[in-house]
Amino acid sequence: MKLKEINRTAIQSWSPAQHHPIYLATGTSAQQLDASFSTNASLEFFELDLADPSLDMKSCGSLSSAHRYHKLVWGPFGMDAQGYPSGVLVAGGENGDVILYDSAKIMAGESDVIIAQSDRHTGPVRALDVNHFQTNLIASGGNESEIYIWDMNNFGSPMTPGPKAQPQEDISCVSWNKQVQHILASASPSGRTSVWDLRKNDLIIKVSDHSNRMHCSGLAWNPEVATQLVLASEDDRMPVIQMWDLRFATSPLKILEHHTRGVLAIAWSLADPELLLSCGKDSRILCWNPNTGEVLYELPTSSQWCFDIQWCPRNPAVLSAAGFDGHIDIYSIMGGSSQAQSQRHISNSFGNMDPFGTGQTLPPLQLPQAATAPATVNPLKKPPKWIRRPVGASFAFGGKLVSLENAKPPQPQQQGSHVVHISQVVTETDFLKRSDQLQATLSSGSFVDFCQEKISAADNEFERTVWSFLKVNFESDVRSRYLELLGYNKEEVALKVTPCIETWLNGSVFVSRVSFDKREESVSVSAKVPPLLWRFFYLIHHFYAGVTFKILIKILSFFSLQDVDGLITQALLTGDFEGAVELCLHDNRMADSIILAIAGGADLLEKTQRKYFNKANSKITKLISAVVMRDWHDILRTCNLQNWREALAAVMTYAQPEEFSSLCDLLGSRLEASEDTQLQSQACLCYICAGNVEKLVSCWSRAQEGQCPLSLQDLVEKVVVLRRAVELTQRSGPAAIGVLLAEKMSQYASLLASQGSLSTAITYLPDNTNQAAVQQLRDRLSRALGHQAAPAQTHRAASQLPSRPAQHGSAPPQPPFSQVRPAMVPQPAAGAPAPTAPSNGWNDPPALTRAPKKKQVPENYTPPAPITAPILTPLGADPHTQPISSGTPQAMVQGHHGNQVQYAGMHQTQLPSQSMNPANPNSNMEGAPGAPTGDAIQPLQSIPAEKITKKPIPDEHLVLKTTFEGLIQKCLTVATDPQTKRKLDDANKRLEALYDKLREQTLSPAIIGGLHNIARTIESRSYTEGLNIHTHIVSNSNFSETSAFMPVLKVVLTQANKLGV
Amino acid sequence: MVSVINTVDTSHEDMIHDAQMDYYGTRLATCSSDRTVKIFDVRNGGQILVADLRGHEGPVWQVAWAHPMFGNILASCSYDRKVIIWKEENGAWDKMYEYNGHESSVNSVCWGPYEFGLILACGSSDGAISLLTFTGDQQWDVKKISNAHTIGCNAVSWAPAVIPGSLIDQPSGQKPNYVKRFVSGGCDNLVKLWKEEDGQWKEDQKLEAHSDWVRDVGWAPSIGLPTSTIASCSQDGRVFIWTCDDPAGNTWTAKLLHKFNDVVWHVSWSITGNILAVSGGDNKVTLWKESMDGQWACISDVSKGQGAVSTITDSQQNEQ
């Protein structure tokens, strides 16, 4: 394909390979005259700008010259050293001149462009070549066997390669060997070719076929094989190219015969030694494979002779050909059509030439042009070396890298080996190590150790605290451990404080007693109350039985430092407690009033408390108020955030188990909303206490900027441990995975996948999300792991897909890609399988094999097993999960898609009708093997509870189970609100913890008794009474002993009461 | 850390030019100067020849797997000027479509993101880029960009589908209004970005930095950030990372990743888009990762042939 043309009759030289951009230098040819008969000479530079689609080449500088040229060569000499930034253009003139031009200067339009010049040669300098290894060396050839070697660093004194060859004759070509730098060949029109060794400074071999018909017009060394060269013959009687090997220099190795008239020029591609260009008097330009003698390509040329042809050293597909028709044409040998380019018309190029002023343009030198069709030019028969990509490493899913290895054959005739390596690329080794640790912890369950390690490895205080908080969850007596972490060690405090308090208390009791008795003694207890007050609370906690007001009252008595009044005495004497209390209140004798109120009965006490709190409004009062009225929400809402530790400690101590989480949440949200970044991060601790994974994630990710793998690992570790903790303590049951957590988990999974940890990755994928990206990733992971879904048996489910429940309307579940499936792609319509469904439906959810199981759910639904019994099965455990053979029948394949829809649909529709707990999607997503997420963060190895041979519940306590379960079932039948149903459902599961305790007989008799009492109240449907007993049990028992089931029981009782079953 | 986990002896009779795993990483497609395309099942470290696809009459340069939602489809391009799209039906691989619209070697094929449908970009030495879109019923719609790169296009690579808003919000059945874009590199030393507007492909950007043929271009997968990233490598030994932060996609800045001593043939982004594999003429594969401060560093060096790896030390890196 022709790229460019220049209207010059000129010889040419490309800029050196190192040079960018690419230029072509042209010099007025000494051998030809154009139609102007002008003998003016010039050097010109043109830029090859392939971005410009036109045929024109931009002229970049020219120089009028006294010389016309036989030969131009452009060497890179001086380009590195910046002496000659565009190298040196060497010209051979008609009068024996060798001239060195500074190309950059010519292009810059400067005047002193000649670096050096010599007229040492006696005749025209037709041959020039620049040494490839030492670019300062030039060889030149003239008449009378003159060959000079010029050193551009020392131009004045050229060397000769050896004694002149005899007989003396013109030198038409010189060429440096491409492999051995001191070897030079020269050729003359007579056909004799000499090879010189410059080290020996002598002729080493003469090459001649003795035919006397080889009139050498071209000489070129094989770019790869040092001993081979080609010679071209100009003689029409012998229009051949001979290939010689000096190792066998008696006759040519190969003769390339295809030209019909003499060959005028040849050029051997340095980029591909299998490409040799030749142009001849038959007006053809041929491209040969000189090794085989095959003509690979014939350039579509004009029917003009071409006398000079050159490969572009930098752009291997480009060549230039100078023709006698006054044009230099630039071609690509890569084929293609030149449709965007104008066709050249010979007449145009002569258009304004009228040298003789005759008013007539010259007729073309040639025969009339055949109309040049915009012929599509076939490319080379053989692809050039430079487009044969030998390497290419590409990434694939799961951090795999696929790389090629094309080993060179040991012998040219043999075949090399061609292998592909698949490698695993791991870039985040620390991350993987930690992920492995986490996995190990999950499987061994050694969370305490894990947390402990994290604590000791923590590099900052906050991290340490967070891990300490997390660790607590796996220890006994969670709340007091939390307190310790907040700086309040119960025992220690008690130890320190008790003696002193006791003294005080005794004193105050004494004083009270005295004041009661004698009414004249004044109490003078120092009022260093605030710091002490906290300790009192712990003291209270120490004695904690819920409603022990006695001590509180004693504390309150400290504040009452007033004298005793006679009026009160009188009131008391008359038994008018109310009056006495009023008086005391009126006189701000709060303690007295309270003490009196106690004596006056519960009603009076409550009234008095209220009045007291209304009146008093110190900081402490608030606390006291909270303690007494049990209204922690208020205090958490209003407390000074700087004192969040105290507030949290108070919650630890006093909050009821069922409100504990929400209180911690409340405090956490306040901290998170605060301005102080320090406080913001502390919110994490509150969320940990609350067991609120979702908020922990959001709080944490706000604090941690960036997507660094290790910070993600940091987060996931905490999340996993906390979720585990939440499950263990059953404080709130396994929470649903929220949007943010799901996102983080997917990020984590894809990161693991990118490191090749596919099987681990899939365990972290949240499965209750409808995000297409997550579902895609799951599909990709399970297929990559070889868990291809088995063909589903039916696809009727798709047509049964019910309309989606309203509460899910905002984000309907989508089978991956269903939305984006372009209309024109054959796709299975629901219930109407298209015959051209992709085989091996690519994204079948891995759950399919269990789809039939799921169908039973509606008829025969049993409440999900308790969460301690993961429904997960290890990946690939299902024997049906076999890879589909690629020959899966279409119908079977179709089923995939059907089921896939069903899969999503089932999940959605079951929720409201089956009271499924969305918080525990696994319970009805059991069809998702290999997709354990959320609560599934439990180790896969954890043994399903059903398999444990449990002790039976002692007969005498069996009634508890039947009663509670019965009540829940009753509630379930009545309940209409899905939320309530879920709650009940959840409760049913969580009561398993109670039954376990019953089996193990670890509950104290008091609690057992209380439970039986509750059961009896249930029988009699007096739930309020049951709740009272409940409160009693809770307030009189150890928190850790009852925390697992008492809150649940309360929920059930409350619901039963509400529903009136 | 790079460790060879499977070595597949392809038994190709001539040089392999490309090897690509499918979407799941379970199948490997290779193509060679021996004019064949082979597919291997490489699950569990195996190497079972699944198919030996014959149909090209010249060296096969590249293969590309379509997204599996369209079925098992593989495209191959060859020096014979043909693009062949192969499809597996009932376990047998067959020609699904043969495209003969180029006048010279077809050097590169790349499937668009699945969101765009089944669309293939082909870059040829005739300078043109063809876009083949499956329209159903065995029909392919062909659009051609002529003179995309004078004397040849060497590589094409699609931009990830930029999701306008959330996918979920799209009413079902309605295709989101994606802007289709891809990048190409060619023998004119240029990297060009193309954009479809009103069904017509238009040159969107022309990125100039290379001083020789652009051998390969790779548009990085989206990692959820608004930044677009493109890697280009060239005969000049340079690898550039082009980034564009502005939503209009008009301002691209080039950063030199490295200047190698030899031609760089191929660049490939990891699926997560944070690692770039660079394959050079010396048959060396290096892996590059951007550090937090935006500098690209070589993180490993897959040695010739062995697949073994020497982690580049600091001193080595400084030398480079």
From TrEMBL, chain A:
- Which parts of the sequence are annotated with region: Disordered? 784-870, 911-938
Cellular component GO terms held in the UniProt record:
COPII vesicle coat; endoplasmic reticulum exit site; endoplasmic reticulum membrane
List compositional bias (Low complexity) regions by residue number: 822-838
GO BP terms: COPII-coated vesicle cargo loading; endoplasmic reticulum organization; protein transport
Q: Which InterPro entries match?
A: SEC31-like, WD40/YVTN_repeat-like_dom_sf, WD40_repeat_dom_sf, WD40_rpt
| Domain of life assignment | Eukaryota
Q: Which PROSITE patterns does the annotation name? A: WD_REPEATS_2
Coiled-coil regions, chain positions: none
Localization, UniProt: Cytoplasmic vesicle, COPII-coated vesicle membrane; Endoplasmic reticulum membrane
Protein topology in the membrane: Peripheral membrane protein
User: Which family is this sequence assigned to?
Assistant: Belongs to the WD repeat SEC31 family.
**The protein's name in its UniProt record:** Protein transport protein Sec31A
TrEMBL record, chain B:
Keywords for this protein:
Lysosome, mRNA transport, Nuclear pore complex, Nucleus, Protein transport, Repeat, Translocation, Transport, WD repeat
Record localization: Lysosome membrane; Nucleus, Nuclear pore complex
Residue ranges of the TM segments: none
The record's WD repeats, renumbered to this chain, cover 9-50, 53-87, 207-242
Q: Name one GO biological process term.
A: protein import into nucleus
Q: What is its main location?
A: membrane
**Could you name the domain of life of the organism this protein comes from?**
Eukaryota
Please list the GO terms describing molecular function. Answer: structural molecule activity
> A Gene Ontology CC term for this entry?
lysosomal membrane
PROSITE patterns tied to this protein: WD_REPEATS_2, WD_REPEATS_REGION
Q: How does it assemble?
A: At the nuclear pore: component of the Y-shaped Nup107-160 subcomplex of the nuclear pore complex (NPC). The Nup107-160 subcomplex includes NUP160, NUP133, NUP107, NUP98, NUP85, NUP43, NUP37, SEH1 and SEC13. At the COPII coat complex: interacts with SEC31A and SEC31B. Interacts with SEC16A. Interacts with SEC16B. Component of the GATOR2 subcomplex, composed of MIOS, SEC13, SEH1L, WDR24 and WDR59. The GATOR2 complex interacts with CASTOR1 and CASTOR2; the interaction is negatively regulated by arginine.
Q: What does this protein do?
A: As a component of the GATOR2 complex, functions as an activator of the amino acid-sensing branch of the mTORC1 signaling pathway. The GATOR2 complex indirectly activates mTORC1 through the inhibition of the GATOR1 subcomplex. GATOR2 probably acts as an E3 ubiquitin-protein ligase toward GATOR1. In the presence of abundant amino acids, the GATOR2 complex mediates ubiquitination of the NPRL2 core component of the GATOR1 complex, leading to GATOR1 inactivation. In the absence of amino acids, GATOR2 is inhibited, activating the GATOR1 complex.
* Family the entry assigns: Belongs to the WD repeat SEC13 family.
Provide the protein name. Answer: Protein SEC13 homolog
